[in-house]
Fold this sequence. Notes:
The protein is of the alpha/beta class. About 45% of the residues lie in helices and about 15% in strands. The chain contains nine helices and eight strands.
Amino acid sequence: MSSIAENLAAIRQRIGKTTLIAVSKFQPVEAVHDAVDAGQRLFGENRVQEAQRKFSALRAEHPDIELHLIGALQTNKAAEAVSLFDVIQTLDRPALAEALAKAIRKTGKTPRFYIEVNIGREPQKAGIEPEHTGAFLKLCHETYGLSVSGLMCIPPEGLDPQPYFKSLRDLGKRLELPHLSMGMSSDFEKAIACGATEVRLGTAIFGNRATPGS
Length: 214
Ligand SMILES: *Cc1c(COP(=O)(O)O)cnc(C)c1O
């Protein structure tokens, strides 16, 4: 067994029924192959071009692979993103919602979306402020016809993430969104205890990245 297969087996034991997104950004395609061979089908990538490069051939071979975009998306890449990803987790501003709606009309592809919430209200971070998430959801549904089914967050670094995970859970409950994407390699067990339905793990599966990821 490759160490990636061993890591995956150990993580699956720890997370039970929670959905596992294997974050393969900055990892070579060989690492993705190892994960696929070990039965992993759900992957997260941060960049449209990198995901295209790594997954086009693989997906032809394994049509059941599901790809999530978990990095910031520029409006000029909306059509490519909509064509490639099954879920876009970083819907974070009205201009992007508009660009995605246009891209869906143009391509005929209809991915699902999660709203990225700036759960710690950090000025340098992307995401909708918690108190504006309800209005933004309404805009996405009613004006742009986007299929939003979840929330995603990255809590502030260096603080106990649990209050932030709980506040995302409460927001998801209030807005009746079933999917909660929260928890990374360092804090996924806390996220699960707070109600995460999916965790996004990179280094815990693949080891350190070649380039520091954002
Ligand atoms: C890189 C990244 C992850 C995975 O981080 P690890 O600490 O390697 O598990 C999860 N979510 C997002 C949004 C990321 O950018």
